[in-house]
Amino acid sequence: MSFDSYTFGLFFLLVLFLHRLPFSWKFKKLNLLWASYIFYAAWNPPMVVLLWISTITDWWVGRWLYVTRGESKRRLLLTVSLLVNLGMLSYFKYASFLLDNFVAFVSMLGVAYRPPELDIVLPVGISFFVFQSLSYTFDIYRRREHPTDSFFDYALFVTFFPQLVAGPIVRSATFLPQLGEPRRADAAQLSWGFLLMIVGLFQKVCLADNLLAPVTEAVYDNDVLSNTASAWLGTMAFAGQIYCDFAGYSTTAIGAALCLGFSIPDNFRFPYAACGFSDFWRRWHISLSGWLRDYLYISLGGNRMGQLRTSVNLMMTMLIGGLWHGASWNFVIWGGLHGLYLIVERWIRNLIPEFEGLTGSLLRLVAIVVTFLFTCFAWVFFRASAFGDAIAIQSSLLGMPGEGAEMTVSGSRAMSTVAVVGSILLVHYALRGISLEEFMRRSPLFVRWLIVGLMLFAIAVSTGEDRAFIYFQF
Known about the structure:
Shape: globular
Radius of gyration: 23 Å
Number of helices: 18
Helix content: 55-70%
Strand content: under 5%
Order of helices and strands: HHHHHHHHHHHHHHHHHH
């Protein structure tokens, strides 16, 4: 049940209708919990069992962690949570990857090993709900949070359908307190929530799917090698596509939650206006980068053990972040590139103490352009189907296309790509210091209505192939 489907539209309106009826708060929460299970079961009903396993495990582990005093016992309880959650994640997401690499390794040693075929179906959104549930046990282990007294509240925290399968990854400290009192959106929240849903669907349906995805596919899913111009067009199209696709989901999820009276944090803050890569990760997939920072980078030592150890910690964090995205060496390389970017940026800041003071508009613009170009260079590994394909496209990006390279993007598609991606970059630059809500509040009323009307019209007339949200595979 995808956000851009009519089925979800009817489902959401029914849930919203029931939520606004004069029932008890306990009944409304139970209604949201069942709706969340139905929403997830629409993809693959048996996989709901995984949600139950994670929920029940971390609910009990959290309660026992809170009352247990011995450190060795507390570590054992935390290990139980890690083994259950990461065990599920490892089996469904990485078992085939690990087996394929083991076969490749032993074949290098001259051993012909043919394992049985693993027919494993990847549960949608497993990386998201596993990380969300783990954050609860981590916070209780660190004595930062108290366990909730209500099992059903905790189950709703894990499974809340707007952000269940593709985030944002919400912390218990943000969501669970909202379940203590009845939540019902007022008129302002309801209108803003629906507006966010319209913005998110416009990003997904009109920009990502209709305008940018065909250009990306013409370069990355084509047997014909792309020349330099096509490689840049396809890569910039993918940069725009993945932003509009993922930010579109997050914006729709935030809007849907707000319509139900709940507040969940932003996941994107105009990332293509980032001035440096640390700034990029404060703006891109904020809930994941925050999770990796708080529960992995800081646990490894953060920046408290000298520059060399800090660099190692950064690289380890980004490599694991890359692997979180998918069971492929391409994702690991993508994460490694961002780790390298962050390390080099940190070295520059240490070598040039005045770096933080370089805030002139021209220098900032140069830094933003450089950040975007290097980000696009890394996106190649994220999108390419194989390592060899990524190398071929990056060679084209660097002006060294292989023999027989052709222009694989048509003239009209090239013009639309430049216009759409250029518009995205301009909007990000213009709004980098404010929120979308603040921009809309500052705008005249007729401008707001004009923007909403144009987006609704574009969604209504959009035609083309329906594509799943990219982050569903993670």
